[in-house]
Amino acid sequence: MTERVLTGDRVTGKLHLGHYAGSLQNRVALQEQYETFVLLADVQALTTHFEQPGLIRSHLREIALDYLAAGIDPGRSTIFVQSMIPEIAELTVFYSMFVTVNVLRHNPTVKAESKTGGLDDMYYGFLGYPVSQAADITFCKATIVPVGEDQLPHLELARKIVRRFNELYRPVLVEPAALISETSRLAGIDGHIKMSKSRGNSIALDSSPEEVAVQIKKAVTDPERIRKSDPGHPDICPIYAYHRAFRKDGSLEIREACEQGRIGCSACKGLIISALEQLLEPMRQRRTYYAARPALVDDILMSGTRRAREVAQSTMQEIREAMSLDYF
Ligand code: SF4
After folding, report:
1. For ligand 1, what atom is nearest to the CA of residue 259?
2. So what's the architecture of 4-186+293-322 in CATH?
3. Which atom of ligand 1 is nearest to the CA of 234?
């Protein structure tokens, strides 16, 4: 059986370094080895942005540019738009018949959200989000899904749905395996555990060299370090997290120099600014190329979506046969 990877992003805004470290760079590597499907999850973006569909529309092309700039190769990866694959919505409805509300209530994302707003005010689409993720994964019979630890419960539900479907009807669906991302979350420049656009602590992938330098210069460091000779604590410093993520060979050296008070924070930041420039400059060049050719980007999205739709229709035919819903 051909191994197929399913990965993607909710279309809620431009991607940043946290996305690159946590998943994008992994996808660029995976496409060399596996058939890769990359989902632009615009329907799932509606769970939180249903009042601003115009924003999703503009973000979709921005993220497509981020993908292409980061090195996702449309010749190797199928980049497609979720809302243009109606079979995903169809599967979501079918699966929702045998997933209980209680199971969904215990999903960690749903649980966390219900703590703040309560279940009574939760939208049906948000509650059913893990079911629609199962549809994303199974429509293309993905065998591998790269996930962070926090996404494991979602994948486990998808696996349960597959087993349930196959037992109830016929073994049509494929149980996906998790590929746990080795890179943990990237800290934000404010020191928060997670870089995120909504917290205003991120560095966008399309940042100019000046913007990168400004963000790094204003990033927090070890607050106990006043003078260069003060021994530092790199594990609580976001700049060290960037060294680990983007200067793998030099990060041990930085750790020692910081802990022994041999490097100042300003010099340490200078090194990471240079490393980020080496990473981001080729991305800027690819972005400029594709941004100047919007028709080409649309072609890439259309042909990826067409390819994904063919796969979806074939799976849907099997699903309908298995469920005896193939009337005509
Ligand atoms: S020297 Fe580098 S790692 Fe250490 S506290 Fe300063 S910026 Fe952070």
Report:
1. 4
2. 3-Layer(aba) Sandwich (3.40)
3. 3
